Amino acid sequence: MLILGIESSCDETAASVSLDGRRILSNVVYSQIDMHALYGGVVPEIASRKHAEKITAVVRQAVEEAGITFSQLDAVGATCAPGLIGALLVGANFAKACSLMLEKPFVPVHHIRGHIAANYVAFPELEPPFTALVASGGHTLIIDVSDYTEMTVLGTTRDDAAGEAFDKIARVLGLPYPGGAALDRLGQEGDSGRYRLPRAVVTGHPYDFSFSGLKTASLNLIHNAAQKGEEIRREDLAAGVSLAVAESIVPRVAAAAREKGRDKIAAAGGVAANSVLRAMLERECRKAGIKLYLPPLSLCGDNGAMIACQAYYEYLAGNISDSGQNCYANMNVSDSFKNYQ
Predict the structure, then answer these.
(1) Under a CB-based contact definition with an 8 Å cutoff, are residues 44 and 86 in contact?
(2) 27, 30, 241, 299: which could form a disulfide with 305 (CB 3.0–4.6 Å)?
(3) How far apart are CA 52 and CA 73, in angstroms?
(4) ∠ at Cα 157 (151, 159), nearest 5°?
(5) DSSP secondary-structure letter at 328?
(6) What is this structure's pTM?
(7) Containing structural domain, residue 208
(8) pLDDT digits (tens, 9 = 90+) for 59-82
(9) Residue 271 phi, psi (nearest 5)
C-alpha cells in the first residue's frame, strides 16, 4: 500500500511516501528555521503563509522521488492535531484536496502518534507493546503503546515542555535558534555540576513532569549574574540544564516501563536528539535489561515519513475520514478523530 503523508504542524513543510508503513520511498522536508531565527522562535502567521507557499512543491517532489505517480497512491494522510492551527490547516486541506481529486481515502493523523511511528521507520522489527517517550518543544509525554493505534498517556508535563525550557534558556544565553540543539552543543564543553538546578516532583503523580522551575532558576542565575557584573559560564549552565532535564525524564520512563511490564522503550521528538538524554537512556535501559529504540537525528524532528507510516496503521484500523475533517490545536493522543468529526 502506497500512502502519501503530509506534515505541517509547526515550522516544517514535509511530505513522504511510504510502502506498507515501514519502507520509506521519499522524505522531503522544507525547514523554515532561517526565517523564524530572525524572531527567536516560531511566528505562527509566518509559518502558515510559508506552508502555503511551499506545500505544492514539497508534495510534488515527494511523489517524484518515490518513483510513482499520484494515481498510484492508495491513501493520503496528514497531521490534523495537535499543532499551530493555521499551519495544520494548510497541510490537512491540501491532503484532503488530493484525496478528493484521486478518489482515495483521507487519513487524519495525530502528530504525537506520528513521532512514535518514526521508530517503525528506523527499526522495522519494532512492534507494540512498548513504552514511548515523546519529548519536543511542545510536548513531554510518557505513553503506553499497547497497539499501533491504542495508546494511553502515563505522564505529561504540568507546565513547560522540556524543549520549550531548552529554547527559552538558550535564547537568554544568546544562542541561535533553534535553541535546544545549540544548548546541547555548547553543553558538551561544560561542567554539568557547576550550577545547582532543580528537579521537580509532582506529588501523587510519579510520571508527570514540571520544567518551569528549571527554566526560572536558570534565567534567574543569568539575570542575577548580569546585575552583579559577573560572568556566567555558559557552557557549564548549558551542561547543567541538559543533565537536569535528562535526570527528570529517564528514571520516570524506566519506572513506567517496569510498572507496565514493558521490555522496550522507544524515544521520539526533537528533544530525543539531545546527547545527554540519549546517553542516559542508553545507560538506564542497559542496566534494567530494557531494549531501547532511539531514532536517528533526522527522524527526531518533524517529518513526513512519520506521518506516512502512522497513516498506514490508522488506515488498517479503519480510522479514515473525509473532506469535512477539521484540525485541532490540542488533542489527547489516546483519542480518535472519529470523536472530533
Answers:
(1) yes
(2) 27
(3) 22
(4) 145
(5) -
(6) 0.94
(7) 128-294
(8) 999 999 999 999 999 999 999 999
(9) -70, -20
